Amino acid sequence: MITYNHAEFIHHAIEGILSQDTQYSFELVIGEDLSTDKTRQICESFQGENSKIIKLLPSEANLGMMKNFKRTIKECNGEYLAFCDGDDIWSHKNKLQKQIDFLKKNQNYLGVFSEVDYIDSNNNKIGQSNRMPNTTKSFDFNYLVERNIIHTCSFVVKRQAISEKCIETLEKFPVGDLPLFLLSSLSGQIFGIKEQLASYRIGSGLTVNWNRAQSHQNKLQVLNIINSSVQLSKEQTKHLEFSKIYIYFKLSLSYAKDGDLLKSLKYYFIFIKSTMMFKLLNRHKPIRKINFKDYLKPIWYILLFNAIRNKK
Fold first, then answer.
1. pTM, whole model, 2 decimals?
2. Do residues 30 and 151 share a domain?
3. For the segment 1-10, what is each residue's pLDDT rounded down to a tens digit?
């Protein structure tokens, strides 16, 4: 668990973990990153009452999300790693047992995740995820690099799936969730349980302040770092490049909507050039879903924005 300024939510997150009904012991490692609210005091209080379970990692200086994530993972010694940010909740008391049982019985899988409930700042359920397709429950790198369907708070992975080299690479990334899933799936399958075993909080955390363009840029940066840091197979590289091309289109569309015409045109032409180069129009599912009118959307936004600006 990593946490920063989660005083309003951290007790729910910790209680959800401590209430897990398991047939084995587990350790909760908390990376507390010098919060400016009472997050550390709350964590210290829980540690004092549960010293055999909770290992608290306080910070003397703010490390930032990814360095904190890296040092927290390095302090985990168990056979399996399970994740929960300081504002999310393991809402199903058998979550951990159910997921570990699956991994023990299915040795060919490296990780497992589930669907989640969406909750607001008052813990009210406001929806639920439905990211998994009905056609499969087994996912590899090639699938996940194109479609991020996993919520971190629902994810459990075998410790052996994440090499020390991968852990050292973590702090290079702008975000922690997508790299974690992709690095975990490099050498094996990830299974999806179509049941809500955790609760993901909407409206809090770092991503609240990101617009769509920033989210797409983050994913593009993640893919570039993985491509340069990890030895991928030819097929994995192809799927990664396919995913980048789709991100170029989404970036062009996002910047056009934001009125940033130069960046919109830049990524639009990169998208068109890359699409023609790889001949992907009939081979890459997400791109194939874009019809001719969709291809012209960024241009329409640009022309509309210019027309409105000229009238002013």
1. 0.90
2. yes
3. 999 999 999 9
